[in-house]
Amino acid sequence: MAPWYREYEDIKEDELLDEDEMYWEAHVHARDLEKLRDPEESIEYRFDAVIGYEGMSSEDFLEIEFPTWVKVFGQRFEDAELYFPDYDTDSIF
Asked: How do the pLDDT tens digits run along the chain, 93 residues long?
């Protein structure tokens, strides 16, 4: 899981979005680690999602929304290996 600030219309062409069109996204990528680590297994299970939060402030996304995702995933998949960035909002704002 990772927060991502969408700044570019096309990053390859270095085309920035207008400042009022930039927004946060939550990226969620899941894999079955047991199958990934087993060379005899077929790796077919993949879950990838990108959820856009157009219009949400950085403070609300980073202090409320994304931590809520982390909490819910931690409760729902308590035995899973979850990876997400640890960030200090005081250093961002």
From this structure: 899 999 998 888 889 999 999 999 999 988 777 777 777 876 666 788 999 999 999 999 999 999 999 999 889 988 888 888 887 777 766
The domain total for the chain is: 1
Q: Which of 85, 58, 65 is nearest to 1 (CA)?
A: 85
- Cα distances (angstroms) measured from residue 92 to each of 26, 69, 81, 89: 17, 19, 27, 5
Could you list the residue range(s) of the whole structural domain that residue 10 is in? 2-92
The answer to whether 3 and 56 have CB atoms below 8 angstroms apart is no
